[in-house]
Write a structure and sequence with these properties.
8-stranded parallel beta barrel; isomerase activity; Xyl_isomerase-like_sf; 11 helices; TIM Barrel; globular; Xylose isomerase domain protein TIM barrel; two-stranded antiparallel ribbon; 308 residues; Xyl_isomerase-like_TIM-brl; isomerase; binds manganese (II) ion; alpha/beta
Length: 308
């Protein structure tokens, strides 16, 4: 298995990206990190970073764009063409940097491309602008996969790319081979989606590029430990990951604000592996047979088997 920990879970005053990578490398079973661009590269010597990653045998899964306050009225879809162009350039820089680090994935979450009021933005115009921007970003370097991470709201009241449906529509309209989807489990709950269904839609189309595991109560991006709230939905999600032979990295996008970061990552891995072993124990084929039967009552046998 390939597991990645979240750098910002270990952030505290005075700690550098390099300090955090050193800390994360001590956690057994963590094989990868995801780095935010440009955030985690600021005040960081690039060669030193590269050498440290090699020394600690930690791979970079990918880079994730982080847009600052200057983009608060929109990133790639900003009506101010200058800001939109700047946002695009930042994505291209991230692609170059990912390649230099041997990563093949750049994740783009457009937190600010959205709206808060009725009549605030011209939907079709903004949408077309996003299609054009993603097309340019994806065709810039075909070796790098561009993955759209959607979130229904926060910080905006409505995001432009807010669901598995709008994300796959965007992916489809860009008509580029190397563009796909990153599923953040908690974001899916916020949207009221059943995560496993969204996974199946993306994986069937060979567009599942990234998975962020976590959990939440649905109304907020809680970033809780995987499986801690929605056990059976998480089990179903992992069943589909196995069914589709997902071999990418499992990134724990969780927020241990009051918890010890290292213990929290370990617990995420422990639970993930336990859930995976439950799926294996019950059996992919047996679960598949139950699913194809469309029998709600019989489906509960999966839960009962887990309970022992
Ligand atoms: Mn995420």
């Amino acid at each position: 298995m390939k597991f990645a920990a979240r750098i910002n879970s270990f952030k505290s005053k005075g700690k550098t990206t390099l300090d955090i990578i050193r800390e994360i490398s001590k956690i057994e079973k963590v094989t990868h990190v995801d780095l935010n661009y440009p955030e985690h590269f600021e005040n960081t010597d690039f060669e030193e970073l590269k050498n440290l990653l090699e020394e600690k045998k930690i791979k970079v899964n990918g880079l994730a764009l982080r847009f600052r306050d200057e983009y608060k009225n929109g990133e790639l879809g900003n009506t101010d063409k200058k800001i939109a162009e700047q946002a695009k350039q930042l994505c291209l820089e991230a692609i170059d940097t990912a390649e230099k680090l041997g990563a093949d994935l750049v994740t783009i979450w457009l937190g600010y491309d959205g709206f808060d009021y009725s009549f605030q933005i011209p939907y079709e115009k903004t949408w077309s602008q996003l299609v054009k921007a993603f097309k340019e970003i994806a065709s810039y370097n075909k070796k790098i996969k561009i993955s759209i991470e959607y979130k229904p709201f926060q910080p905006r009241a409505f995001s432009m790319i807010s669901s598995i449906g709008t994300t796959l529509l965007m992916v489809s309209e860009t008509e580029e081979e190397n563009i796909g989807v990153t599923l953040d489990y908690c974001h899916m709950l916020m949207k009221g989606e059943n995560p496993a269904y969204g996974l199946s839609l993306a994986a069937e189309r060979k567009k599942l590029y990234g998975v962020h595991m976590n959990d939440g109560h649905g109304l907020n991006d809680d970033g809780l430990i995987t499986g801690s709230v929605t056990f059976i939905k998480t089990l179903e999600f992992i069943y589909y990951l196995k069914k589709y032979s997902y071999d990418g990295v499992i990134y724990f996008d969780t927020f241990p604000i009051r918890e010890n970061g290292i213990d929290e990552v370990r617990k995420n891995i422990e639970i993930y592996e336990k859930l995976e072993s439950l799926v294996e124990k019950i059996g992919i084929e047996k679960i598949g047979n139950i699913v194809s039967g469309n029998d709600a009552v019989k489906a509960q046998n999966i839960l009962l088997e887990c309970l022992g």
